[in-house]
Amino acid sequence: MEPTTRKPRTQLDRSAWTRAAIEVLAEEGIAGLRVEVLAKRLKVTKGSFYWHFQDRRDLLVAMLDEWKEGRIKDIIKQTRAVPGRELEQIYHVIDVYSTSRSRRGMLIELAVRDWARRDPQAAAIVAEVDEVRLKCARDLFLACGLPLEEASSRCMLLYAYVFGISLMIYDKFEADIPRLKQDIADVIARSGNARYALASPAA
């Protein structure tokens, strides 16, 4: 009789659990995030979870840390500009964060923000990310020669637009959506400052 070959157990590290939990958060919200759901999705036992985490709260803290680190890293990357090309980078930021390319990221972001409405620790993390987000965008406007007050207003307008558009279904509102988005980007980016009032990079 031939010996039975056992399938090797799936080895998961702490990060694998955290990433899977973030995916569940995006799909079902914080209320749908349960250890048994994660274990079933990852095809492992609940015991594997408790090998890496003390409890569900420990997982939630790990999720917030990973989300914060990832968001701040991406924000810095997207807002980093070659000196003299800050205006072009502003258009890039508007485009990247207002297109379908970031759909998954926006679903995660909205889920984290909904979570933050009920959890002070999540709210503190979101506030920290938003501070970095706004400061990096404002630095781009400042580098284009805008005064501090106007740079602050424009970076707020930029993110009000990219977050707002993620909540709307607007495909039938306008026949030429790319033109509409370009016009909005121009409104956000243009200024009377001689150095700053350049032609749109997409023109």
From TrEMBL:
Keywords: DNA-binding, Transcription, Transcription regulation. Transmembrane segments: none annotated. Gene3D superfamilies: Tetracycline Repressor, domain 2 (1.10.357.10). Residues 34-53 bind DNA. Residues 11-71 form the HTH tetR-type domain. InterPro entries: Homeodomain-like_sf, HTH-type_TetR-like_transc_reg, HTH_TetR. PROSITE patterns: HTH_TETR_2. SUPFAM superfamilies: Homeodomain-like. One of its GO terms (molecular function) is transcription cis-regulatory region binding. It holds the Pfam family TetR_N. Signal peptide: none annotated. This is TetR/AcrR family transcriptional regulator. It comes from Thauera phenolivorans.
